[in-house]
Queue: 2 jobs
Job 1
Amino acid sequence: MLESKISRRGFIKASATTAALASAGTVGFQSWTSEYVKAGGQTKITEIPSTCNGCSSKCGIIGHVKNGRLWKLSGHPDHPYAKGKICARGHGYATLVYSKERLTQPLKRVGSEKFEPISWEQAYKEIGEKLNAIIKKHGPEAISLTEDPRASGKIYSPRFLHALGSPNYYTHHVVCSNSRDAGFFHTLGVTSTSADISSSKYIMFIGRSYGDAIRPSSVQSLVEAKENGAKIVMVDPRLNNTCNLATEWLAIRPGMDLAMVLAMSHVLIRENLHDAEFIKNYSIGFEEYSKELKKYTPQWAEKLTGISADTIERIAIDMGKAKPKALIEQSWRGAFGCNYENSTETGRAVALFNAMLGNIQQKGGSIITTKPELGKLDPVKHPSPKEPEFKKAGQDEFPLAYEEQGVATIVAKLAMEGKMKAAIYNHSNAALGYGNPKYMKEALSKMDLVVTIDVQMSETALLSDYVLPDVTYIERDEAVEGLSGKTPGLALRQQMVEKVHPKTKPIDIIYTELAKACGIGQYFNFTLDGLNEQMLAPTGVSYKELREKGVIMFEDKAIVPGTMPELKTPSKKVEFYSETFKKAGFSPVVRWVEPKVSPSGESFRLITGKQAIHSHTQTANVPILMQISKDYDLERIWMNPARAKKLGIKDGDMVEVKSSEATSKVRVKVTERIHPEAIFVPSHYGITSSYLKTAKGIGFGFMEHVPFDFEAWSGAGNIHEVIVTVRKVRS
Amino acid sequence: MDQQDEKKLHTANLFSMLAELYKDPDMEFWNDFCNNKLLDQIKEELSLYGETAQWEVTDIPTEFSSLKKMYADSLGSQGVAIPVESLYKQWTADPSCTLPFAKSKGYLLGDPAMHVKFILNEFEMEIPEEYKSTPDHLAVLLELLSYFILHAPDEFTFHFMDDHFDWLEEFLLRLAETNSSPFYYQMTKMLERLLEAVRKEYIIMA
Amino acid sequence: MARYGMMIDTRKCVGCYACRVSCQMQNELPVEESFIHFYEKETGVFPNVKNEIIPVQCQHCEDAPCVSVCPTKATYTTEDGIVLVDEDKCIGCKYCMVACTYGARTQSHKTGVVEKCRFCAELVKEGKQPACVSTCISNARIFGDLDDPNSDVSKAIVKYNAKPLRPDLGKSKIYYVR
Amino acid sequence: MIWGTIIAAYLFLAGLSAGAYLTSSYVARKYPEAKAVRITGRIISPVLMAIGLLLLILDAEAGLKHPLRFIYLFTNFNSVMTIGTYFISFFMLAAAYTALMEILKKETNKYVEYAGMLFAVATAIYTGFLIGVVAAVPIWNTAILPILFVVSAMSTGIAGTMLVASFYDSKAVHRMLGVKKIHLGLLSAEVFLIFTMFLVTSYSNESAAESVATLVSGEYSTIFWIGLILVGLVLPIAVESFELYNDKKMKETEAGIMMAAAGQGGIAGTLVTESSVLVGGFILRFLLLAAAVPVPFL
């Protein structure tokens, strides 16, 4: 008789009746499949409203779920960004849920790019111990946390950090909109306005392209404006895809946007087309600014921008005449989110130009948005951790940077100096996207503890000591999200399917459990549902109702055009003259600032931008999206034919792009659509993590060429201050 | 006990031992594995199937750490070939599904997994939590097969073999890509041959 | 009987590829195969440049060369004017691909059958819009009955003076605003 | 290239097969003593057609997976391919019958042979019309193309038959001056047709001009000039002209007449010319498929 020496570890558990049931058998796969498919018609499909995570817009989506699996996605008709539509990314990103290239269990690094699976308990214990050891030795100011914020993260991440006693909470804005935010915040009291595009008559975009960084409603509003006969001017060194909808393209020299806005402001005053009434009632310091503007004539700007003085004059005058239904769109990264040394000042000049048009809070103008009033956790039952005793690192160096967002790359700089000892990265590929990857890698290696929370093995995760697997957005509930806009509203991300990988966890749970391991569990004595109930309390909307609808808009609380709110600037007015800037050591009025570097006759400025099918680098590994890049060679750099000819480069040739930081090989798209001084490279490629098999090896990473740097005003990444040379090489 | 039943016992035992090989190796497993204990037993049982199940392993790990590494490089979640059926088959046959990957290979919890879930439900069986997203993992499939050989009607067992092991060829192609040890490739090659031999016997029985 | 057609306003197309992706999903295509192809037409010299993005798919020609050359009658025109492929009849000879003016046909790697845009016939039957139309971010696509002068598509074609890509080459049923 | 090498080979083999059939019928009447040539033509004709058909089937992937679908090939009378399918079927039947009779050493029914000749011509024309009716590709869409294909079919047919036959009976091959003259005429006509077609189409159409440009000066110019014009046409024209000239000269001397009667010219010349004609015939079809530039629609 057979007697196995091997101890049986069989893990299938049979119930008492299994043997009996098994002896009767059941249906095989083929007949099961046909039954399954046939029955599919009658199977109940649950529709769960939620929000997309394909990009930072978080459009409303509806997940259709069948037999416990995700089945279909559609746009949420009520969501103000989606308006019932989903873009290519939104469809494609859902692939992530069932992807095999996900993080499935907590990992501990045991060598260079080598990891060992560990239990959550071990991960929590070790991370907690290390954090506490660092706090003991270096103080809580040596700990930082950075994220690309989502609804839950916005609440849990800073709370966790504050509970540890550290103020060092950062967001991705350092390579997004830090400059614009600083410029706007100190001028209008908000980091951004919202453009009332569809009602506007004259719209100028500076580097921003609705068609390349899509939010369905934005594109629709621009189409609407065009149908209504609005003038749409696109200021961009490259003819971006939105130019189809534009009436005019101004092919500006990269980095010179400030000169153009200053000259247009000059013309506005010269022609007496500024809104004197608005300026008188709602602003301070206009005199000083207008004095400064005197020297910025269109002729002066023509030399810098390459745009004729006539054109600048014509547009400024036309915009002045169309006011207040005329505006410069505020943009995000665009051309002045974090691009040049003069970007903060460009942001300020744009905000001020809009103010001069008197378009603030006007139909067809710039809207200071409103947000729903959300509740907070009960301070008695769930006391908040006390405010950290220290200032956020980077605040001394960059006092103008918007405090809530901070300057995330300061973490790397301080790590290099040995002052920052721990960094937690949540939903953030900082090592590839925030600063020069070589610099970031070295900086991360200098810290005692790096923890990454993500769904994929990103480049940052690869450099981390611990990698904690998040669930995807399809598999999690999140905190209630307040939608700000002309009409305030609420949106909710909800779990559509049970989590695929049992050992993944949503961040609310990760923080709650990690907090316990760190000895600060008392600050997380609530559940996500409990938090949401309390957040919703003042809105009059029940959690149940929000769960059913996914999106609720407060139409009755919509902004009434024409009423100017009290601004959150020190003077409570628009600040043409800023004491804050003066205190920080900068000119109190906007002045022309040269970009840091400029190309010679031989070299180029490397500029970047988005493509409609990708979102940063997070969608690069999605096969259905990356295939489009492959089919249309979208990873190529753009070069003007005049320059290409001189270099002996033809369309499709392989070239070497060389900067002070790196050398890359890539193919060229020779096109009239780009300024001769610039090379354009899309910012979605150059994935190096071998865990991301679809994405790896396609194109090059823009940031590899960007020297690690801070813009003096806002600390932003100066991502366009890059000079490269290009030469043809064999492929 | 008749001859056929005894052979079934051996075969079932063989599959359950093979199932062990596809699980993430732990210390307990290593104790059974080291000094060729497990492989010798498998070899012994394989003699039942004569030449069809002939088999050669060239690179038997002698250290627990090297076995662990081999597993991670070959079958682990970052290995060249994850032994999960859904990854090698079209995700779903349902034409109404409009997800971007509905007809693609390479995604978890596809129709094969749903079928295994269905079988587990029908038979009131349970598998460990960590296999929840992969009920069609080779280790689970082999254990189920082992169980069915002993407890289910032959026809059903035969169909189960037919339905859930037809992806091994593609799996082997992936395994062949490994730069690491050929150990798992050789094991799986043998498994494939063995399955074919067992399948043939079932055809005769039916 | 309706005579289905479409209008694509290229001036509104920003090349977001949403139509391609939703088409692939609706038609269960593998990622490498697509019924919608994008062409860029750049004209002028910097800085006076215009770039047109033109999505092209089967134009559902009334006198379709693919229908006449198909030796097996696998390609046929429905009563509603939609050109379809009966995949049970297609031998994959690719004569239709050779004959198509618009390069709108692709051969399935898996089955060898030649496929192309089907105006989402099954959705249209249910009174819905083809996937590319309903998904279009900028509403650049309008679909409907060309024979009905009151349909959105007919009205839009008149309003924008939309024209087929090559009216001289045959009666195709996708009209473009350029 | 939607239709590539396989279809080029199919078009080539179909023409070659038809040409070989016609050659053998001609030889049977004109040179009854040249049995080897007749038999060769009749045997290779169905064999080559069969290979061509196999290639066609191989290229039709969906049909290959579901062979029954090939029955539908006979259904659309608007399609040149359907009509061609009938032509080829009838031609195949006649050619196979003729070959069988030849093998069985039986008398061929002359009506069947006439039908075979008719469908051989039809098959050769069909290969031209198949791509000639494609309006989307202007270089194809001309009346000259079917004529060119027929001429090339005859010329490759002669070449193929002679080449194979020369292994069995090199004398007979040399004696058939009539065939040589026809062949020379066909080759010269081919050169004329190719350049006429290029001129006519490229003057009237931009896409066709682009096609012509890729052939004469672009991507395919090397293979066009060296492969098709030099090797496929000029070389055989030169060699055949030389042979015919020699022949004439020989007949003027006594020794020459004797030599010619003995057929001692050797087979080297035949091997070279006929092989190069075959190479040229295939290249012609390949190039025409490769250089297809569709009409612009943007």
Job 2
Amino acid sequence: MNFTTFEKPGRKSTELAKLNDRLAAKPAAHLQVQNLSVGYSIARGIFQAVDDVSFEVKPGTNLGLVGESGCGKSTVIKAIMGLQPDGTRISGLALLNGENILGLSDRELQAIRWVKVALITQSAMNSLDPVYSIGDQIVEAIRSHENVSNATAWARAEELFALVGMPAARLYEFPHQFSGGMRQRAVIAMALALNAGMLLADEPTTALDPIMQSQIMQRIRGIHEHMRRSMILVTHDIAVVAETCENTVVMYAGKVAEKGPTEDVLERPLHPYTMGLKNAFPRLPVRGEPRQPLISIPGVVPNLFHPPKGCRFAGRCPFATERCHNDPPALVSEGMQAAACHYIDRASEFREAASRPETWRRMGSAA
Amino acid sequence: MKLSTRKLVAPLALPIAMSLSGFAFAQDLGERVPDIQIAYYAADMGPMYEQSARVLSEEWSKLGLSFKMQPVQFSTFISNIMVGGGLEDMAVFTVGADPDRVDPTYWLHDLGACGARRNGAKWCDEPYTEMVRKQRELVNTEERVALAKQAQQHFYDVMPWWPATNTVYGMVWNSDKWENVTSPEPVAAHEGLIDPWLSAKPKTDDRWFDWAHYEDVTTYNPMAEEGAVGWIRFVYDTFAKNNSKGETIPWAATSWEFVEPTTVKITLRENMKFHDGEAVTADDAVFTINKVVELQPPAMSSRISNLAGAEKVDDLTFNIKLKTPDASFITTVLPYAFILPEHHWANYEGDMVARDVVADGVVVGSGPFKFKTWRVNEVHELETFKDHFHAPEYDGVRRLALGQADAIRSAMISGTGDIATMVLPVAAMSDLANQYNQLEFKEIPSHGSMLVWLNNSKAPFTDPAFRKAMRMATSKERAAVEGWLGFAIPAAEGPVPRMLGMWYNSDLPEIAFDIDGARKVLEEAGYGWDSDGRLHYPKK
Amino acid sequence: MRAYILRRLAQSVLVVWAVTTIMFFMFRVMPADPTAMLLERGLSEQAREKLLQEWGLTGTLWDQYIAYLANILQGDFGNSFLYRKPVWDVLTPLIINTLWIAVPGLLLGAALGAVLGTAVGWARRGGKLERMGIFLATVIRGVPNFVIGIALLTIFSSTLGWFPEFGMGDPGDRTGFARYFTLEFLHHLALPLIAVIIYFMPENLLLMRSGVVENRTEDYIELVRAKGVPQSRVAWHAARNSMLPLITWLFPALAETIAGIVVIEIVFSWPGVGRELVFAVSRQDYPLAQAAFFLLAVMIVLANLAADLVYGKLDPRVVYK
Amino acid sequence: MTQANSTNEPVAIKGRSWLSAVGQSLRLVAGDSFALAGLTILFAFIVIAILAPYISPYEPFKAMMTETGRLNRLSPPTSAHLLGTTSFGNDVLSQFLHGFRIALLVGLVAAVAVGFISTVVGVISGYFGGYVDDILMRITDIALSIPTLPFAIVAVALLGPSVENIILVITILFWRNGARIIRSAVLTERERVYVKWARAAGASHFQIIMRHILPNIVRVIFLWVTMSVAFAVLTEASLSFLGLGDPTVVSWGQMLNTAFSSGNLRTAWWWVIPPSVALVMLVSSLYLIGRAYEEQTNPRLRVRK
């Protein structure tokens, strides 16, 4: 099927080989996000979507960014890519291999986007241009940054398609001819086009059915292991994080609630929100233990026009005290882990209580 | 939001009514005279008609009348009102200054005789009709003039309708480039005339005479041509031409005489040639006339209806036979009838009237110009035919079909156009000449007339007193000044325009514009006014 | 695909028939008389009858209609009353003249509108460029085309003298097709062409801008931006997608505008088919007016058909059923 | 908008009030500064139109005479004639002011008629679907294939040039586009859950149309009527400019036609500029209103907040 490379050996294929070598030589990126705040300024005031968020992605590692919808996870990703809408106020730093990439102009970003940071978008359903073939769109990404012939770029696209398990012939097809899962794979293939040091996967599986979700996640994990790129995986599915990511950042209402090595964060959460999130996802029953019920966190994420003045989770936290409602907690480290809770010291007590459904139910009826 | 201008009830009417005659009580009077419709040429013919009708009705409404303005498109007006008998109440409209209307027959007979096709005023007076029919047959000019004047007197006494103004045409030309641009008065500067077309002389090397005009000529086949004197009379010679003195002068024919009341002997000019070099002979003339009589081309019907045929006498002489004696033949037919080259037409097998002569390459006449090019709706070019006996002193004439007045004006200013004669309002021509040194303007007073028609078969117009009052309240002066911007002359009495010279009966006493007098006439006839100042019929 | 085209063609034929019928009856119930001009000159009653017969205006309306349809099916639209020759002989050169201002004018207007519309649509929301762009486009869209023509003539011909004031060429004997390739012709063409462009551009601009604004927030645009391609390339993606709805509007609008160009032709004394239509109507030359009208209607129908097909070409999602 | 969407319950039961729908439309328009400018101009024009007969110094067709008894033709602006006179000696200002009446009369009456017919056709076609829809849409197709201005020229020549006929012709011409647009809006509304509930609850077609469909497509109708006013004004102006206007009244197009046909277009600026500018202002302000309205009601065009 690989007729492009088959038909045109010689110069073209050497060009491809050179391109592949060049791309393969790219190191994985190191990303440090420091005190990132993102606010949308509109008539009614400032909507603080992300507030003082810091985290780090070490080269070749995979960071999970979790939280409910509306917690600012995607905003963080957009800010790093420079995709925030006009009129957004951003402060803080995002150091990519030591260089800040926040607040750069579109022109300056041209040298970074896709070359150093690539994006696997949230809804693959709509994120491909409907009027161009998939192949053209991948080629566009390659040729915007690498001075190679169309044929070479196309050959590279075929390789990428092979990598995500799709037949090369389908490059000629248009997005509407693809199923959701195929589109997602195409988007992944596109993200890999330039072997960027940093991959940002923004809820890559949200729109898919569970079987497809796990297939895609497997694909991402495989690629991650194979290529050792740095990666941020945004998801609201804590199980995905558990399986995929070395580190985890839990976000709530625009702030970091908790962060640390995934194992630590999920095994011994320090923040009641993390505990709640954990409860809300199904787990395979562990032999010998009683089957864990699914418990959702009552209430909704607070309106960020008028964020609560204390802990943002206080309104939904079964353990909240007067202090929680009044003073915003600082991020407190405990070993590799850190959490923004006044009562980190009582974490194990909370964990115990949080695993009981009535703890949350009481909260729900109180609210 | 009722449109206030639609009904013109003069606010002046009331106080005048009160002061002059007081007002009668309603029980002393008959019905109120109903609203009167005034039909006039709609704006497609220019705003003069609208303005004139408005001004005239403003004065008439001082008699206590109300008017409804009814603009009618030209073609509708002609087919419905002029010949269709569809005149409701009144009409204000014009008839053009065609060259053949220098003969009184059109004015006396066509517009006024019982059953005449253009008698839209629906007036029928047997003795009058008898007179105007008779005058036409009188070959003796003196007798004819006397009878025509008598008919005018009769018409004046009855006053079925009357002319309000005589139109003043105009022409504006580039006097830097052209001289001897003579006036065709009293005829509008129709193409095909000697004045100013053939007499103009170039002052510069630009020896093409560019006529900035409105519309295209639609055919070069004279049998299909509608106009009376149209453009193609430049290409095809006629037997005679009417000059600016109103005389019919020799052209392709050098002389004519009535050898019998129904036979006219015509002698052709010597050494005439068609554009292809063939000689013009009596054979061509006879062929053309007989063909026309045989085919009866509809477009020509009005002038050829009285033709019976022609016969050759010798190479340059032939006789035209008429069906009935017709004194107007000389002025109306000889300057109209043309000569076709027999050698191009005799063997044509299709419908001659529909022949596309341009496509066939047979735009061949003997006229002062040869056909050169025609770009549809854009420009026509005729080249001077140097061998013609009256060839102009320039190289050719162009007709620019500009389609709108503004472009005609621009053409005159920029020098692209050398002469403009119609379409551009006369006032605008005069303005132009005042503004630009190189442009000169000449007024062409004509016999074209704006007529006031009344429906003579309907009350109140059946009443002579009412007609008289309306006549007295007709402000010819205002119509000329406000309607025609001064480019019209208040018309004289009677149906025949003063410009027709000897045919005009100058003994008819002038009726002055007099609203008070008009009201008196009405009052004496038993009419009266109600408290609103509205005119009522006399009590029965 | 073929079945679809056939069905659409059948529909188009139906529509053309209906419009033709409407026009036929409209012209026949006109109160005006095509013989009026002759009547004023004294056409006799018999001659008038003869003329009406020759023009196919005698017999019942129904007979006339059937005869008319039968002739049209044979491509015969009759002879012009005035020009006394087949209407197409009269119209063909005029159609060419009209196309000279219409086609380049409309294409340039559409292209310029698309480019400027993309620029305005891509500008910062609420920014100066966007606001000025929208304002100017909306105001220019509100200028009647004869006012555009008058303004252009007054400024560029009368005052500055840069362009000729009327017509399609200087008077002269240049005829035939070659005249279209002279400098003189282009000089005359400039102003009417600009008028058509100004007349046609704003609506394109506004539609394109709406499309781009709608598309620029779509997810796929975000991905294109993320790919780090140049801004112009990103805007192109938005523009390319905005063109789809524009196409459905553009083609019928083209046809409609050609029909509306009559005013521009009159102002500039351009010897086109629209101007002739107005003359023909005022001179009761039914066959000519009917044929011109038929032509315009067919053009609109074909434009709609073309819009459908081109849309299919541009949008891979469309499947003809 | 958000409120209307988040409270589906009451909408389903009561339907929406007409008044609130219209009020909301106006509020939306007033939120845009361009549209506000447009509304202000429109309002000012309406006021002038109403006052025209009282504030115009002369009768529009009255011929002005000079002291020497000559016609006061083509006078540039003077204190007696603020906008000068025409070539017929008419006062330009008076004609100009009367022109407001005709423009708005034609525009508003035609637009209301267009709005009514489009709505009736669009709603019937969209709501009932099936054969009715097919037939109505084929008729619309045919109407859509009629070239606008040429048809208007022929039709006015046929019917005679009067304000009433011009309005009639404009109505005949512009209902077709509106019917299409309204029909597609109705198609969307018809599929809404609350319409289905209402039908299930036994509401009559008439009730459903009046309570659920119409109030929700008011914005589409409003938009189309606004645009129709502009189209009508433009069409009347074009016809008048071509000499097919009602000669018994003064309209701007006709003023321009008179200037044009008397060859004074490029010299008598005082005669040409006022009607041109007024036409542009009126039509543009309508377009500005329409555009702002479209922008405010189309969620995809709104500035993201």
